[in-house]
C-alpha cells in the first residue's frame, strides 16, 4: 500500500534526524556562490575525519580537499616495489634535514570569544572540539591578545589609571575573565597535549605613550631603561602572573603586534611603535631582565611580530646585539604583503644568518584587502592562498603558522573600527550553526598531520611542475607529504621514498592532498 505524501515527509525528516544524532561525519555542504562549499555544523552534527591512525607498512593513507567539494576525504592504497613510470616523481630525501615543527593554531581574540559564546552550549563544544580535540584538526597554538585590539568591541588596557607606574591598579578585563580564559581552559581540557599559548600586546596604556592615545602613531615616552619602558615590561609580567592564577601558562610572548604600524603609520586602531633599535634596547634593558627575574623565566620572547618584508634588517639590528640576543628565542612574522618580497630574501636569509633563532608565523587572515574585503563563504581561492603560504613558509624554515581569529560572525566581526576580515569558522548565532570555510581545511592538512617535533626533510621533483609540496618525518618515523595543486589541470605523479618504495597518486585540479605512510 502506498503511503500518503505527508507520512513520507515525516519519515524522511525522522531519517534525517537519525543521521544527525548518530554522529555521521559527512560534510553538510552549503554553497554561497564563492567557488566552493562550506560545511555546516550544529550542536549535534559536524563532519570530522576523526582520530587518524596510519595503515601498516606497505600501505599509505591519503586525505583530499578540493574546490570540487572534497573535505579531508580519506583513502588508502598500496606502496609499490616498482616505479609506476609516472612523468613526475617527487622523491623524499630523508638525509636532508631542516627545522622541527612547533605547531599550528589560531587566535582567541575578544571577537572570537564573543562569537563562540553566542552559540548554544552544545554548538560551542562542537566548535572547540573541531579545533582542539583528537578528532578535530589538532590545533596546538593559541595566540592571545593582551587587552584590546581591533577585534574587540571597546578600547581598553589592563592599567588605564594615569601615572600608575607600580601597576597597583592592574587588572584583567571582563573579556579575559568571563570569555577568553574560560574558553582557553575548555580548549586545553579537550587537547591531548599542553596548548602553546602565545601573548601579543597591541598598545601600552595611553598615559605611557607619546601621543596619549591607544590608536594612531605613538611610542613609549622616554627612552629604554626609563620608567615608562620598565613599567611596560612589568605589564607583561603581570599579565603572565594573572593568567597563571587560572592555570594558563604561556609558551611565548611577542615584543608587540606590528611595531612598524605605530611608528611609521597612523593606524586607526591600537598600535605601539618601535623601531628595531628601540625594540632591541627595550628587550636588553627592560623586558629581558624583567622576565628573567620573574616567576616565568622560561617564557620565550619573539621579536618583530610584523610582516616578513621587514626581514632580514629587523633581525640584524636586534640579534647582532649580544645584550638583547641573550633573551630572545625566535622571530615572529605575519603573512600580509608576503607577495612583495621573495621568501628566500626574507625568511631564508634571516635563517641562514641566525639559525639558532626560530621563525614562527603569528598572524594571517583572508579578506583584509580593500579590494577583497570581509567574509566570502566557500571561497576556494582563500584556501589555496593559505596552503601556498604555509608550504612556502615551511620550505623556508618556519616552525609553525598561526591563523588570526578562531571564529567571526557573518560580517567578519565584531571589530570596533570595522576592519572586517574572514575566518576559518564563521558563526551564524541566529541559526545556532557555524560554517567551516575551505581554509579551515587548508589549516587541517597541516595542523592535523604535522605533529610537534616533526622534522622537515628534502623533496626533489624529477621535472618542473605546478605542484607545491613539503614533507616531514614525524617523531614516530612516519612520513607526511603535503601537495597543493593550484592549477586547473589534473596532475598525475608518483612519490618515491627510498625506505619503502613507490606511491602512485593524483592531484585533482585546485586541490590539497596529504599523503602519509609508515616506514617501519
TrEMBL record:
<keyword id="KW-0378">Hydrolase</keyword>
<dbReference type="GO" id="GO:0010605">
    <property type="term" value="P:negative regulation of macromolecule metabolic process"/>
</dbReference>
<dbReference type="GO" id="GO:0007040">
    <property type="term" value="P:lysosome organization"/>
</dbReference>
<dbReference type="InterPro" id="IPR017853">
    <property type="entry name" value="GH"/>
</dbReference>
<dbReference type="GO" id="GO:0005765">
    <property type="term" value="C:lysosomal membrane"/>
</dbReference>
<dbReference type="InterPro" id="IPR001139">
    <property type="entry name" value="Glyco_hydro_30"/>
</dbReference>
<keyword id="KW-0326">Glycosidase</keyword>
<comment type="pathway">
    <text>Lipid metabolism.</text>
</comment>
<dbReference type="GO" id="GO:0006914">
    <property type="term" value="P:autophagy"/>
</dbReference>
<dbReference type="InterPro" id="IPR033452">
    <property type="entry name" value="GH30_C"/>
</dbReference>
<dbReference type="Pfam" id="PF02055">
    <property type="entry name" value="Glyco_hydro_30"/>
</dbReference>
<dbReference type="GO" id="GO:0004348">
    <property type="term" value="F:glucosylceramidase activity"/>
</dbReference>
<dbReference type="GO" id="GO:0005102">
    <property type="term" value="F:signaling receptor binding"/>
</dbReference>
<dbReference type="GO" id="GO:0008203">
    <property type="term" value="P:cholesterol metabolic process"/>
</dbReference>
<dbReference type="GO" id="GO:0042391">
    <property type="term" value="P:regulation of membrane potential"/>
</dbReference>
<dbReference type="Pfam" id="PF17189">
    <property type="entry name" value="Glyco_hydro_30C"/>
</dbReference>
<keyword id="KW-0746">Sphingolipid metabolism</keyword>
<dbReference type="GO" id="GO:0016241">
    <property type="term" value="P:regulation of macroautophagy"/>
</dbReference>
<feature type="domain" description="Glycosyl hydrolase family 30 beta sandwich">
    <location>
        <begin position="453"/>
        <end position="515"/>
    </location>
</feature>
<dbReference type="GO" id="GO:0006680">
    <property type="term" value="P:glucosylceramide catabolic process"/>
</dbReference>
<protein>
    <recommendedName>
        <fullName>Glucosylceramidase</fullName>
        <ecNumber>3.2.1.45</ecNumber>
    </recommendedName>
</protein>
<dbReference type="InterPro" id="IPR033453">
    <property type="entry name" value="Glyco_hydro_30_TIM-barrel"/>
</dbReference>
<dbReference type="GO" id="GO:0032006">
    <property type="term" value="P:regulation of TOR signaling"/>
</dbReference>
<keyword id="KW-0732">Signal</keyword>
<dbReference type="GO" id="GO:0046527">
    <property type="term" value="F:glucosyltransferase activity"/>
</dbReference>
<dbReference type="GO" id="GO:0008422">
    <property type="term" value="F:beta-glucosidase activity"/>
</dbReference>
<feature type="domain" description="Glycosyl hydrolase family 30 TIM-barrel">
    <location>
        <begin position="101"/>
        <end position="450"/>
    </location>
</feature>
<comment type="similarity">
    <text>Belongs to the glycosyl hydrolase 30 family.</text>
</comment>
<comment type="pathway">
    <text>Sphingolipid metabolism.</text>
</comment>
<keyword id="KW-0443">Lipid metabolism</keyword>
<dbReference type="GO" id="GO:0042176">
    <property type="term" value="P:regulation of protein catabolic process"/>
</dbReference>
<feature type="signal peptide">
    <location>
        <begin position="1"/>
        <end position="23"/>
    </location>
</feature>
<dbReference type="GO" id="GO:0004336">
    <property type="term" value="F:galactosylceramidase activity"/>
</dbReference>
<dbReference type="GO" id="GO:0030163">
    <property type="term" value="P:protein catabolic process"/>
</dbReference>
